[in-house]
Specification:
The structure is a single chain. With about 700 residues, the protein is of the alpha+beta class. It contains 17 helices and 27 strands. Helix 9 (about 340-360) runs parallel beside helix 16 (about 675-690). The strands form six sheets. A seven-stranded mixed β-sheet has the order 3-5-1-13-10-11-12, with helices on both faces.
Length: about 700
């Protein structure tokens, strides 16, 4: 059995030796480098662009403005920005592209861009808390408002109620590799070397904008240096690069700098959540109200449906949710690792802890009391759920029941313990794959998937090797090209269960074809040589109900689908300085079949560290006067480093096989670890020093302010 083994990364050597090639590494003949020039204000109107100095700069070939660009066609989602730049004089956010400097070298392009002078007429700036609030137009299968049961009756019947607001700031993804797009035309054929999480999202958007057939757009995506959601949808630079290349008749690469990433791709929006809980004296919930507002752009819309978390987490007769957006003068947000449940568990799991305190009940017992045996929203049975086992396993390993017998102080550090439920929806995408059997006993996987650092190439290799019963060394993979079978995107924690299932089925298909020619031969290479066949191809599709391209949480099936986990956290608080230290984390997860425990554990520990940063360090501040992002570089962004993280991150998985979520029995894990931790940390702070901080990140000054209130 290859599935279930802790196999090391098959691409690891290439990455540590520098052989792995990224989009920004691709060079083609006669290529120009493009640098975007952004609007200097967040709102207003462009009145003039002075480009003579830039054109005189050595190496600069052209400066493109609105006058040079075509009128783009109407573009559809998954374009993140439907109102493209360089089409109007209106300025909608600071950094919106108003010109593109093209030069023979990147240094010349950046030098020329610095010489561009832009005249503007300033407009009024709106920031979160002062924007225009409205309900979003929702075209997604998640995030709709819910009114299940009688909320007021549930609250009236409650022996104890909690109502609080929880806030988290905007945050940027900051992947190691900034976005980069190289566009090359050959007649009406366009090839794009692009840093993406979903190459098949690009052709329909780019073709609509440029007026060409989607099949004429090829996207080649070698290794992608992280994404976390900001490379999932299609952003303006991915349209501007081929448009510029067409105008000048030469290949053009636009590689965003770190600061340009802040204004030209998305980020996680500011989110404010209002949670109201009612419960009987024994802890049984009588009512849940969860209302959300998140910041979004003036014209383009992204909403963070964090209230989805409360629809499926706990058994309750009355659950009401509501979603709003607040339009501000800023670029449009997007999904960020653990959208929906990342923000959602911060609010609902903090409120559950506050309810447990009010009821004088152990927080774990409160959750067990309200354990949902069926989906509270749809009343469908779960495809598989072993959260109860995860609670018991993690609590035992942590010593949760014995925590009060341990010292509450370690030197000047006050010790606190907190716990929370982790959960993530199950996003599934249709996927296709091909497996080729060779007469030398090897096999080749072909799938238009992407490597974003999560270990999918390794997992896919294991799946094919296990199905074909060959060593993993005999399996290779060709990926990252839209000319290959249409794999699922690598976002939404979906790739393993969708593309992985298609690979398994394609391998089976190839074996079946061979067995019809040469029965009862275990070694496919020997069988093919015996039959005089050098190549056998197996194809397969992972299909969804009604042949839809996307399915959320089991929609259209008899089952509800989620992943689950229980997290327990020990922290230290310095009450004099408000400093927080992470001392210990224990997590147990119910996520279906685990294909590779090594890469799976890496994903979960990475998610835990990710959310520790969210809980205690990270925020992107929109400066209130000018509407700009205050800091647009890594030197001004606090993120966890090795010294912040203890070695004692204890992660395990409940043994499970989910036959309804995927052919593999697996569900998604990539984002599950990035849920629950922030609430557990906040709950541990309360346990340590007796104060609640309901606004992330939990910075030292907030703790001191609360202690002195």
């Amino acid at each position: 059995m290859t599935i279930g083994r802790p196999l090391s990364r098959v691409e690891g050597v290439d990455k540590v030796t520098g052989r792995a090639r990224f989009s920004g590494d691709v060079v083609v003949a006669n290529m120009l480098h493009g640098v975007l020039v952004g609007a200097p204000v967040a709102a207003g109107r462009l009145t003039a662009i002075h480009k003579d100095a830039a054109l005189a700069h050595p190496g600069v070939v052209r400066v493109l403005t609105r006058a040079d660009m075509p009128q783009f066609g109407k573009i559809p989602p998954p374009a993140a920005v439907l109102h493209l730049p360089l089409q109007t004089d209106e300025i909608r956010h600071e950094g919106e592209p108003v010109a593109i400097v093209l030069a023979e070298t990147i240094e010349a392009a950046e030098g020329g861009a610095a010489l561009i002078k832009v005249d503007v007429q300033r407009g009024d700036v709106l920031v979160p808390g002062r924007g225009r609030r409205m309900p979003p137009v929702n075209e997604l299968p998640i995030g709709n408002d819910l009114a299940k049961g009688d909320l007021q009756a549930g609250l009236a019947a409650a022996a104890q109620r909690v109502e609080q607001a929880y806030e988290q700031p905007a945050r940027h993804h900051n992947p190691m590799e900034p976005s980069a797009t190289l566009a090359q035309w050959d007649g009406d054929q366009l090839t794009m070397y692009d840093s993406v999480q979903a190459g098949f999202n690009v052709p329909p958007v780019v073709s609509a904008a440029l007026g060409i057939a989607p099949e004429n757009v090829r996207v080649v995506s070698p290794h992608t240096g992280g994404g976390f959601g900001c490379k999932g949808f299609v952003w303006p630079h991915q349209i501007l690069a081929p448009a510029a290349a067409r105008v000048v008749g030469r290949p053009v690469r636009i590689a965003l700098t770190r600061s340009l990433m802040y204004a030209n791709v998305g980020y996680q929006p500011w989110v404010q959540q209002q949670v109201q809980l009612g419960a009987q004296a024994d802890g049984a919930l009588t009512a849940i109200r969860h209302e959300i507002v998140n910041s979004s752009a003036m014209l383009d819309t992204f909403f963070e449906p964090a209230s989805e978390t409360s629809k499926g987490l706990y058994a309750c007769p009355a659950i009401h949710t509501k979603q709003m957006i607040e339009r501000v003068t800023i670029n449009v947000p997007t999904a960020m690792r653990a959208p929906v449940e990342g923000p959602g568990t911060w609010a609902i799991e903090s409120a559950m802890d506050e309810l447990a305190v009010a009821l004088r009940m152990d927080p774990l017992d409160l959750r067990l009391k309200n354990y949902a045996e069926r989906d509270p929203h749809t009343d469908k049975p779960w495809s598989s759920k072993k959260l109860r086992e995860a609670y018991q396993d993690a609590a035992k390993r942590y010593g949760w029941r014995e925590r009060h017998s341990r010292p509450k102080q370690d030197g000047h550090w006050k010790i606190g313990h907190g716990m929370a439920t982790a959960t993530m929806g199950s996003f599934r995408h249709a996927a296709a794959a091909r497996v080729r059997l060779k007469d030398d006993g090897s096999a080749v996987i072909e799938a238009g998937t992407h490597d974003i650092g999560t270990g999918t190439l390794t997992v896919f290799t294991q799946i094919a090797a296990d199905t074909l019963q060959v060593p993993t060394e005999k399996v290779s993979i060709v990926w990252g090209d839209t000319r290959l079978p249409r794999a699922s995107p690598v976002y939404g924690s979906s790739a393993t269960m969708t593309t992985g299932s298609a690979i398994m089925q394609a391998a089976r298909n190839a074996k079946e074809k061979l067995s019809k020619l040469v029965p009862n031969v275990a070694d496919h290479g020997a069988a093919m040589r015996k039959a005089g066949i050098s190549d056998i191809v197996g194809d397969a599709q992972f299909a969804l109900p009604n042949n839809l391209p996307f399915n959320a949480d089991g929609q259209g099936t008899p089952y509800a689908m989620r992943t689950w986990g229980a997290v327990f956290v020990e922290i230290g608080v310095d009450p004099d300085f408000g400093i927080l230290r992470l001392r210990r984390v224990v997590g147990s997860y119910s996520a279906g079949r685990i294909i590779n425990p090594k890469t799976a554990r890496s994903q979960l520990t990475g998610g835990i560290i990710w959310e520790w940063g969210k809980a205690t360090m990270e925020e992107s501040v929109q400066e209130p006067t000018h509407g700009r992002w205050l800091a647009k570089n890594l030197s001004n962004v606090a993120i966890p480093v090795n010294a912040d993280i203890p070695t004692d991150l204890d992660v395990s998985f409940v043994e499970e096989f989910d036959p309804h979520a995927s052919a593999l029995g697996a569900r998604g894990i990539g984002e599950l670890g990035a849920t629950g931790i922030a609430a557990a940390v906040g709950n541990a702070v309360y346990d340590a020093v007796g104060v609640r901080v309901r606004s992330l990140p939990i910075l030292p000054w907030k703790i001191i302010e609360a202690l002195n209130a």
